[in-house]
Amino acid sequence: MLRRDFFRFGLGLGGFALADLLRAAEPNDPFRGLLDKPHHPPKAKRIISLFMAGGPSQLDLFDHKPRLNELQGKDLPESVRMGQRVTGMTAHQATLPLAGSAFKFSKHGQSGATLSELLPWTAKVADELCFVKSLHTEHINHDPAITFLQTGHHLPGRPSAGSWLSYGLGSANKNLPAFVVLISKDRIDQPLYARLWGNGFLPSTHQGVQFRSGGAPVLYLDNPPGVSAAARKQALDRLAELQRLQADDLGDPTVADRVAQYEMAFRMQTSVPEVTDLAKEPKETFELYGDEARTPGTFAANCLLARRLAERDVRFIQLYHPGWDHHGGLPGGIRRQAKDVDRAGYALATDLKRRGMLDDTLVVWGGEFGRTNYSQGKLTATDYGRDHHPRCFTVWLAGGGVKPGITHGSTDEFGYNVAEDAVSVYDLQATMLHLLGIDHERLTYKHQGRYYRLTDVHGEVVKPVLA
């Protein structure tokens, strides 16, 4: 039976029958995590991941390299590249002309963090942020790189980070999914597949649930037209009997998962409209997030919704903001993107802190890779593009047990290679789990004869960034 069928048939007054079925089919709560308690005392209770799909240019936002402006237009030295591969989009260029940033950089806060003029609002909370400028990945194209960062493997089929967290710690709110996904509207320039928030081989109760903007926030949640409460209850009673027979006959553990989905769908009929109703927020909230937060589906509105979900103890809240793939026309494109996310990111961090939630909420901002220090295509005095660059890029973290106001790692003067304190994607994932009290080496699932984990056989906690 498909997931949408769980929602279609698991609603209404039949929830009473489902409660009986839950007791009959499975003595344990399917939404309870594998761990009775965390491996060690957690610093964070939840994660809000602000994912900039497409690969934002670290060289135009965070990683200031004046040397590139000095060498504008000159070919990338082979001593810097050292034969490292480039994508097919620039592999056949006659030259790889170095491109300095068109934007000014300055230092901010007591920490002296360096940020581009594109991020004036983010600069206001620079002392709350931990910048990691030495992240690197193994993949040079979007789909494998995004899949790798989200699931720990470049091939589809593995559980996402949010699913692993749900599997390990379970749900802290029985009326909402442990893992919720929000996607900015009108910025989709490349596909974002549902498998990026899929449960893979973990039980289906741990997959992410996408909340949509406009119309019904969750597909198939509402009662179908023309179905009365009495008819729904009768159908569910009969379905409950069939499921009980299947459980008795086959001992199938997925029966409990299916029934748990029915229960969750029933509860979400009330909880989802309540949490997504931003009209209940006071005027002061929209003054903080900006007018865009009043428009459903914008990054600002999704940041505000993320805060509301965090307040209700959703474990993992994944925001996707596509549109960062600037192979050409970067100055204009990145201005638009930065304007989308700058104030909203500042507002989210500020809002969480005001409410006393930043201490136990880990916020992560970043994309799947960075951009090259050379121009893809023609370089002019006012325009340039940048290709994909997996060798080094920047993310920032805030709250949740992370040291505020620090920068970890650095790149060389060309912004091409990591110079010190390299951090792999696996290291980042291990650190995220650590902050929620999970030893990444001990959260495993046996599938097809092998034990799997989010970090595969890699990863070390980045201890210098821990508070």
Q: What does it look like?
A:
- With 467 residues, this protein is α/β, with parallel strands linked by helices.
- Helix content is 32%, strand content 15%.
- The protein has 2 domains: 1-30 and 222-275, no CATH class; 44-217 and 280-465, Alkaline Phosphatase, subunit A (3-Layer(aba) Sandwich).
- It is built from 13 helices and 17 strands.
- Strands 1, 4, 5, 6, 7, 8, 11, 12 and 15 form a 9-stranded mixed beta sheet that branches. It has a two-stranded antiparallel ribbon with strand order 2-3. The protein has a two-stranded antiparallel ribbon with strand order 9-10.
- α2 (15-25) runs parallel beside α8 (229-250) and α11 (299-311) packs parallel to α12 (330-354).
- The longest helix is centred in the last third of the chain and has 25 residues, at 330-354.
Average pLDDT for all residues: 91
Separation of termini?
46 Å
**How many domains make up the coordinates?**
2
The coarse silhouette is globular
Percent strand: 15-25%
What's the CATH H-level homologous superfamily of the largest domain? Alkaline Phosphatase, subunit A
Order of SSEs, N→C?
HHEHHEEHEHHEEHHHHEHEEEEEEEEHEE
Question: Which percent bin holds the helix content?
Answer: 25-40%
Key features of this structure:
single chain; 467 residues; alpha/beta; Alkaline Phosphatase, subunit A; 9-stranded mixed β-sheet; 13 helices; 17 strands; 15% strand; disordered N terminus
Topology readout:
Elements: H1 3-9, H2 15-25, E1 46-51, H3 66-70, H4 78-81, E2 105-108, E3 113-116, H5 120-124, E4 129-136, H6 142-151, H7 161-169, E5 179-183, E6 209-210, H8 229-250, H9 254-275, H10 283-289, H11 299-311, E7 316-320, H12 330-354, E8 361-366, E9 370-375, E10 386-389, E11 393-398, E12 406-408, E13 410-411, E14 418-420, E15 423-424, H13 425-435, E16 445-447, E17 450-452
Parallel strand pairs: 1-7, 1-8, 4-12, 4-15, 5-6, 5-7
Antiparallel strand pairs: 2-3, 4-11, 8-11, 9-10, 13-14, 16-17
